[in-house]
Structure prediction request, 780 residues.
Amino acid sequence: MTARLRSLLPVLAAPVLALVMAVAVTTLVLLIAGDPVLLVWQTILSRPDPRNIVNIINAGAVLYLSGIAAAIGFRMKLFNIGVDGQYRIAAFVAAWVAGQAWLPGVLNTVLALLAAVLVGALWAGIAGVLRVTRGVHEVISTIMLNFTATFLVAYLLRKVAVTRGNLISTEPVPTGGRVPGVALIPGTPEEVYGLVVLSVVVGVAYGVMLSRTRFGFELRATGQSPTAAMASGISVKRMTVVAMLLSGAVAGLIGMPLLFGEYYSYGVTFQPGLGFAGIAVALLGRNHPVGVAFGAVLFAYLDEQGNKLQIFADVSPELVLIVQGVIVMSVVIAYESVQRYVLHREEKLVGAALGTDEGVRP
Amino acid sequence: MTVIPQQERPAGATRAKAWTWPRVLLAVGVTLVAVAALRAVTDAEQIFTSGTLRTAVAAAVPIGLAGLGGLWSERAGVINIGLEGMMILGTWGAGYGGYVWGPWGAVVLGMVCGALGGLLHAMATVSFGVDHIVSGVAINIIALGAAQYLAALAFTGLPQGGPTQSPPIPSLPNVTVPGISEAALWLEDRGWFALSELGALLAAVTTSVSALTVVALALFAATAYLLWHTAFGLRLRSCGENPVAAESLGVSVYLYKYVAITVSGAMAGLGGAFLAIVAAGIYRDGQTGGRGYIGLASMIFGNWRPSGVLTGAGLFGYTETLGLRSGPASVHALLLLLGLGLVVIALWQLARRRPAVSGIAMALGLLVVWIYLVTDVVPAEFTSLTPYITTLLVLSLAAQRLRPPAGIGGRYRRGEVM
Prediction:
């Protein structure tokens, strides 16, 4: 076994271990509840139709943005729990801007996207600034900002809304500003959102930023040891604010594929809960650009297949939430355990090399 | 690892001063006079009636119980974001327990379900060394799914039940203190400055109070006693301050953390059960509405102390009620009180030579007073915002004075140095 493979093994072992654990726990839940275990797994693992695949790609792309937004913060141990509030307030403002149609056609869309990025960044920035100037922990401030966003958006929506049927929403995006879908998957009239390209761009940018730029290095360094980072001249305060701004900027984009590809306006039915799912996806993918993509697709797949549970197995689709939660929990537990095992083994190796039986603590 | 940054404390701002009886009475007295004055100069009669206050108490109890749960966990050094999930489990437990065994069964099963959530958190954070916030987030996801899945499984087809709601839970008895209740109501009706407000307050806590509210208050007292006046509590808190030192003194840190987090879950579960049994009389999907997070905020607001948590929960419960019950006019009146209060804080901070804090408070205070003068009502959404803005304000004005347990959020392994 080469050294590279040996170092990669634990990284791959953890997710596999986690999936096994998640399947085992869910099966146990089903057994206790007296639901048809085999039928449930058959339904979840059945081959998705082309229509389902399109839905998985769309939902996965949106979740991926959410996951990256959370991952940017997590990379430097900054827990941006507020992705949810950031994306909702940004989606609302972007929808309003797009609906006003100040600029023609594509320019209007670009303007709305910029507005979304800006608003998302600012909303997250509040938490960043409070953290570095007043010492307010970001978990608490972002949770409070989530609630604040909820009520603020409700209030503003009521102020600017137009009535469509018996629902209220912002002024719809004019036809010229909408982003057409792409018929990527044959065999279904459903189309993949045009703005799925946003996820690709953000993913690549995140990957490059993390491994190829000085900022990415400083971000990772600050996450691993703030004291060491500070000693080497990195301004941790500045990093905190910038990371929060970036995280919020990406969070602002989450709602955009939905806004310009499906809803065309922001109303009370605009998809909720994406922010929290993103946190889970980021944890699942260990904040790695590729890992988060796997996590996002897995979650989207489970969501889509879960919709069939009610029809085929007479089981409530909320089962999928349990599966997802258990996967997240198992991944982190598995990763900790594998890491501890690796550490333990290295200690043994070092101990053996030094001629002491018990090994040494690093 | 998430360690809440300990900034340098300014001189003079040492630990929060003890809540002695004269202090508490003074605070209550000042509040009563302020409210009475507000009722005299505005037409917001509803802001301090026994009815409003009784609703406020009912709204405060679940928040307070969640906060108390957070206190148990964090005093043992483990951050508990999973309170919301444990509360959700509690609501389901109450719905099912109430259907099978009646109201007290609902209470017990709600606590047990919450405790199971706590146990999971303990297992992940203590035994496996998972980051506390990560584990909490995962628990919130699992609990949401579990409660909805179990509800669909257990309640579908039951009389008046359905996939998203339980059959009605039989209600718990109400407690009225004879004598005091009548006297207080009589006093409230007189309309005497400040004395009637005292009557309203007394009437609210002595007239048809749910038995579960009494239990919750008893838990607050029991927590304060257990954690600060027994050897058990000292050991538990030492695990939160410095687990390595605790270990060297022979404390079984793992055991204490497990106990603390499980109790934490039970408290949050009871908070959820209260929502189901007392507030709604039924389990419903999404019943908690983020109260677990507000509980967490009330704990921080309360500086990790039972009396503080109680105050914070009371304040949040009161603002929540005000928006629902007495309408936009009342909240509008309260703006005046808030604005003037901020101005007073600003002057006080100025006297203590802290111009920055003073400036922020003064600007905010004048802004609030200005809003009061130029508007007539406060939109309902802004009323709902109150607890969250309050928390942010308190944290940004007083974060340096808060004193979280020193070892919070850290990963402790037996036999290792942190």
User: Anything to note?
Assistant: Residues 83 and 240 of chain B are 18 Å apart (CA to CA).
